[in-house]
Design brief:
Blueprint (H helix, E strand, L loop, with lengths): L6 E7 L3 H14 L4 E7 L6 H8 L4 E4 L6 H11 L4 E5 L3 E3 L3 H11 L5 E7 L5 E2 L3 E2 L4 H9 L1 H4 L20 E2 L2 E2 L3 E5 H7 L11 H11 L5 E10 L8 H19 L4 H15 L4 H8 L1 H4 L5 H7 L11
Parallel strand pairs: 1-2, 1-4, 2-3, 6-12
Antiparallel strand pairs: 4-11, 5-12, 6-7, 6-11, 8-10, 9-12
Helix pairs in contact: 1-2, 5-10, 9-10, 9-11
Length: 315
């Protein structure tokens, strides 16, 4: 890395040593933009730090010493960064040739958007729509609670958070860009105060995008910035993962919504879990609703250290 870095890439690692190494390798092999790579290790127990330092001596590996979660981990990495742009990148991604370069070029030519995301594919080449989402609303939560969003999956009307059948194949402004692939200038990041550390895992990018829009930014998807996303590797069970997702949504409702909409939204979240409880994943979500419905920080201890809390008999 002999040229001054134009981009700081921040990856948060938690017990995903090999996939993180693969993500770093593909990033370096497919990107021409001068960059620095910062990996924040959240107290991994799988020798991630030694593996990454041995394999990539130019990568800045920060040992957090404990599992800080995504928001705090990202903030720690960005605080160490020096480049004028910051890219958040998941450890379970593979950068395709020119993807990051395309994202940077678009941002430089269209600075008025302020927040930039790309297009993600699954390993089999099909679309992974999770690079962006629509924002939660009373209507979207009603559709979730009544099952309309499941019956009419990818419907722009009845599953509005999915953004309909749009294949992420055109430049388009969106409400939420996920932390899987998120580009922003360092100055804008600092103005927004980084990620909100009320969040532990899931929901922080929705909150960040909401605050960015409120500050005048226009989150946009750049389809030429295409990566492969394997979708998750650091949460154990699908039930617990969905509980963490619900905790993130509950936290967003509690932080950003006013009463009575906040109360209605939380009730609709629980109603959606009740409706789906015949499925093993949702059975766990419903059973553990007391653990996630108060949001973070309560949900972190309740879901990740269940012995410290009562998880049954929720009312």
């Amino acid at each position: 890395m002999t040229r001054t870095a134009e981009l700081s890439v921040v990856i948060v690692n938690y017990n995903t040593a090999q996939s993180t190494a693969d993500a770093v390798r593909s990033l370096l092999e497919t990107t021409r933009t001068p960059l620095e790579v910062i990996v924040v290790d959240n107290g991994s127990s799988d020798d991630s730090v030694d593996l990454l330092r041995a394999g990539f001596p130019d990568v800045d590996v920060i040992e957090a010493g404990e599992n800080l979660g995504f928001a705090a981990g990202v903030n720690l990495g960005v605080a160490r960064s020096r480049a004028p742009y910051v890219l958040l990148l998941n450890p379970d991604t593979t950068s395709l040739p020119g993807a990051v370069d395309a994202l940077m070029a678009f941002a430089k030519h269209h600075p008025h958007y302020g927040l930039y995301g790309g297009r993600t594919l699954r390993p089999d080449g099909t679309l992974d729509p999770s690079s962006c989402w629509g924002a939660m609303s009373i209507w979207s939560l009603f559709c979730f609670a009544t099952g309309l969003s499941t019956v009419f999956k990818r419907s722009a009307v009845f599953d509005p958070e999915s953004l309909g059948s749009w294949a992420r194949d055109a430049v388009r402004e969106v409400p939420i860009i996920t932390g899987c692939l998120l580009l922003i200038s360092r100055s804008a990041w600092d103005d927004l105060g980084g990620m909100d550390e009320h969040f532990f895992l899931y929901g922080e990018d929705a909150d960040f995008s909401r605050r960015a829009r409120r500050a005048g930014h226009r989150p946009v998807i750049v389809p030429d910035a295409t990566i492969v996303h394997a979708v998750g590797g650091s949460t154990a069970s699908s039930g617990r993962k969905m509980c963490l997702v619900m905790a993130g949504r509950a936290t967003e409702l509690r932080l950003a919504w006013r009463a009575p909409a906040r109360t209605i939204g939380l009730l609709l979240l629980q109603a959606g879990a009740l409706l789906r409880r015949s499925h093993p994943t949702w059975k766990e979500v419903w059973h553990r609703r007391r653990d996630w419905r108060d949001g973070y920080p309560h949900a972190r201890g309740a879901l990740l250290h269940p012995s410290k809390t009562t998880t049954s008999g929720a009312s």
